[in-house]
Design goal:
By secondary structure, the protein is of the alpha+beta class. The protein has one domain. Helix content is about 35%, strand content about 15%. A 3-stranded antiparallel β-sheet has the order 1-2-3.
């Protein structure tokens, strides 16, 4: 996505256009975070999405803050605890990528040079 210059949320919206639950969770997280609004200097943002264990989850990281939103589906819920942890690392890594223009492909991050 970043290599193509596409906005991360717009790119995902295209992919999720035929998947209303995925799209609803993506839109809720993006709206809650104010995606598309100008960011303060030195603040970088990342987003990630996950579907598993009967749950759909998304998170946005505004470095260094990670925020999650619980969206009622009026359908079967597999859980809200474990599935949400699956999006934390990817959204933080996406925010680091936004800040540094360098993707992170391995963990742990403690052995990486910090972004200046």
């Amino acid at each position: 996505m970043r290599a193509s210059g596409a906005d991360s949320v717009a790119f995902r919206r295209q992919l999720m256009s035929k998947h209303p639950k995925h799209l609803a969770v993506l839109n809720a997280a993006a709206q809650h975070a104010g995606w598309g609004q100008p960011l303060p200097p030195c603040v970088f943002r990342g987003i990630a999405q996950f579907m598993g264990h009967g749950s759909h989850s998304a998170a946005v990281a505004d470095m260094p803050k990670v925020d999650t939103v619980i969206v009622p589906s009026f359908d079967f819920w597999g859980g809200v605890g474990e599935p949400t942890i699956c999006v934390v690392t990817p959204c933080v890594l996406n925010a680091i990528h936004a800040a540094s223009a360098k993707p992170m492909h391995s963990l742990p991050l403690k052995n990486r040079r910090r972004v200046a």
